[in-house]
Amino acid sequence: MFGAREHISITLLKDKYSPFVNMLVEVSTYVTLFAFALYVPIRGGLRFTTTQFGTIDAALQIPMGFINMVIPICGALLMFYSVYNTCLAVQEYKASKLTSA
Question: How far apart are CA 77 and CA 100, in angstroms?
């Protein structure tokens, strides 16, 4: 959903502003999300995951670190889609600027 830009958004304020302001808000949102993903799931997730390699899961009999690797992997995907969606927002703004001129 996030990668396809189909997440829930409230467009009440977005509809009142110019396309340039909307693009700036969207880009700043994705930059903030990128910073969050870098700090929490990547940095924190890697710290947590590395400490869990010494703990063996009772049911699967594998280190918990392998199970918890999903946290930094999802953080990396979140960072990728933040950059991707930022590029799309700028491209859409440029395309709308060209068609309105």
Answer: 34
